[in-house]
């Protein structure tokens, strides 16, 4: 055992410093299998004090640290690519306080999963605003670090909008802690907001104070077929105008549905096939529902009211990710566009994909203008198609990352969505908080 591993063992105990490559393999390859590397070791601290001691030890040895939560990230930000880094797994940071029903808030450790948090809130009659298909593994810390969006973003906003404060350990072991849950707090720089979306480059998040919402369970899920993406964008706007309780407006296309059905064995969702589909989830009264279902594309829609039938419709959308990965190692491109540009982008995308001799599965959170372009075909280390799709999105006034972050996958093209002045300011923040570049080198900023 080397000197650093011996020091880390002093901090966490030997069972939480993992060095056997068979054991560390699950921490060193990402969910997509596109990014992988070797870790010097994986360390699993149990509380904020242990996280601080781990960072101090790594800092003394000049060894980089890759923070990791549930390892469901899709841009390679949570795994080391070079050898020699320590992976700091936050999964043992399992604090989960009783829900504070007076303020509608809760304090949760970074390692609590989103499913656990949502169940905990539901037990108190409240709801956590973020939900995503990776809910059983994605953690509070990881979703904050990526500012995850998910299926309810159009209603509750992304993870950053749920944050009232957090506790984090900076690269030099100092702890910043703001867990008081004071909503009216206007005292200078918003460090909590800054750490949200920082992708493990500014500090290790250990605990968060989170806003909860009054539970308004969806009562209605509709799946409608449409001729194209433009029709889907129009239909979701019409439905949202009629149903104020819409919380999700999701999109997928025939090729994605075919992959899902082949992978899962699910039957066809509607009486006939369509080029594209819109899935809407809403809390709606009977009157509102009656007014909505007269919209023409909803005549042939599947409408579900009970929990099991609703989950059945959601499976067509939520099982896209696993079905695509079963077909190959995808290039996952997560763009967002102004709703009025979706149709033009979608048409030009076909040309880009044809030139790359690839195929694209397109789906996403259309209510937020967010499309997941999953490209199958090019080798994992061939970035040409990534570059072309991201440039196309930027050219249409879109962003190169709607919700997954920049990670390693898009660090080289951050300039497509951020000006030189913005990147300089971001690098200055990084240099101020982590001058030695200890935390997640190569993530967010391409190495100089
Ligand atoms: P990890 O993958 O472990 O890490 C992600 C990033 O956060 C890395 O850069 C890592 O260094 C950093 N990090 C992790 N923990 C900490 C910490 N405690 N302190 C500091 N930095 C940390 N994403 C969406 O936004 N919306 C979706 O709808 C969505 N759906 C998904 C569905 C599936 C099936 C899958 C596999 C993924 C999905 N994702 C989605 C992507 C992923 O779930 C999110 O990015 C999630 O936020 C990652 O959380 P994690 O705990 O797995 O983090
Ligand atoms: C989703 O919306 O299902 C996710 O962001 C996962 C993905 O992009 O594959
Ligand atoms: Zn998504």
Task: Give structural notes.
With 448 residues, this protein is of the alpha+beta class. The chain is built from 15 helices and 17 strands. The chain has a 7-stranded antiparallel sheet with strand order 14-11-13-12-16-17-15, sandwiched between helices. The protein has a 4-stranded mixed sheet with strand order 1-2-4-3, sandwiched between helices. Helix 1 (3-12) runs antiparallel to helix 3 (48-61), helix 9 (254-264) packs across helix 12 and helix 13 (342-355) runs antiparallel to helix 14. The mean pLDDT is 96. The structure holds flavin-adenine dinucleotide, D-malate and zinc ion. Flavin-adenine dinucleotide binds next to strand 3, helix 5 and strand 9. Residues 74, 133, 320-321, 332, 334, 372 line the site of D-malate.
Radius of gyration: 22 Å
- Summarize the amount of helix as a percent range: 25-40%
Bound ligands, named by name, code or SMILES = flavin-adenine dinucleotide, D-malate, zinc ion
| Low-confidence blocks of residues | none
Strand order of the largest sheet: 14-11-13-12-16-17-15
Straight-line distance between termini: 32 Å
Structural class: alpha+beta
Q: Which outline best applies?
A: globular
Q: How many DSSP H or I helices?
A: 15
Summed over residues and divided by their number, the pLDDT gives a mean of 96
């Amino acid at each position: 055992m080397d000197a650093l591993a011996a020091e880390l063992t002093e901090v966490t105990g030997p069972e939480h410093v993992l060095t056997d490559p068979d054991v560390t393999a699950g921490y060193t390859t990402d969910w997509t299998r596109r990014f992988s590397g070797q870790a010097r070791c994986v360390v699993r601290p149990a509380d904020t004090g242990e996280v601080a001691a781990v960072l101090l030890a790594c800092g003394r040895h000049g060894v980089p640290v890759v923070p990791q939560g549930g390892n469901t990230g899709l841009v390679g930000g949570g795994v080391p690519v070079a050898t020699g880094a320590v992976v700091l797994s936050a999964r043992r940071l399992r604090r989960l306080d009783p829900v504070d029903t007076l303020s509608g808030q809760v304090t949760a450790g970074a390692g609590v999963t989103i499913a656990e948090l949502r169940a905990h809130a539901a037990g108190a009659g409240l709801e956590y605003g973020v939900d995503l298909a990776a809910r059983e593994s994605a953690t509070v810390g990881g979703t904050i670090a990526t500012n995850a969006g998910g299926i309810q973003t159009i209603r509750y906003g992304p993870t950053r909008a749920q944050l009232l404060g957090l506790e984090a350990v900076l690269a030099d072991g100092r702890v910043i802690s703001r867990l008081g849950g004071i909503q009216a707090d206007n005292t200078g720089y918003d460090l909590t907001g800054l750490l949200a979306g920082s992708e493990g480059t500014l500090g290790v998040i250990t605990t968060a104070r989170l806003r909860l919402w009054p539970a308004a369970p969806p009562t209605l899920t509709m799946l409608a077929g449409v001729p194209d993406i433009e029709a889907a964008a129009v239909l979701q706007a019409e439905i949202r105008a009629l149903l104020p309780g819409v919380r999700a407006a999701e999109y997928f296309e025939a090729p994605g549905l075919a992959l899902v059905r082949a992978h899962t064995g699910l039957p066809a969702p509607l009486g006939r096939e369509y080029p594209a589909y819109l899935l809407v989830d809403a809390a709606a009264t009977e009157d509102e529902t009656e007014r909505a279902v007269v919209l023409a594309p909803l005549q042939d829609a599947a409408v579900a009211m009970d929990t099991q039938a609703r989950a059945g419709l959601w499976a067509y959308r939520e099982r896209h990710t696993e079905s695509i990965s079963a077909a190959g190692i995808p290039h996952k491109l997560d763009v967002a566009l102004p709703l009025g540009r979706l149709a033009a982008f979608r048409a030009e995308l076909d040309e880009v994909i044809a030139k790359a001799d690839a195929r694209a599965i397109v789906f996403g959170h259309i209510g937020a203008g967010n499309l997941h372009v999953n490209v199958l075909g090019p080798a994992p280390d061939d970035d040409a198609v990534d570059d072309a799709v991201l440039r196309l999105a930027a050219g249409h006034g879109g962003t190169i990352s709607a919700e997954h972050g920049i990670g390693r996958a898009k660090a080289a093209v951050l300039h497509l969505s951020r000006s030189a002045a913005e990147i300089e300011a971001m690098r200055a923040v990084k240099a101020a908080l982590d001058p030695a570049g200890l935390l997640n080198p190569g993530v967010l900023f391409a190495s100089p």
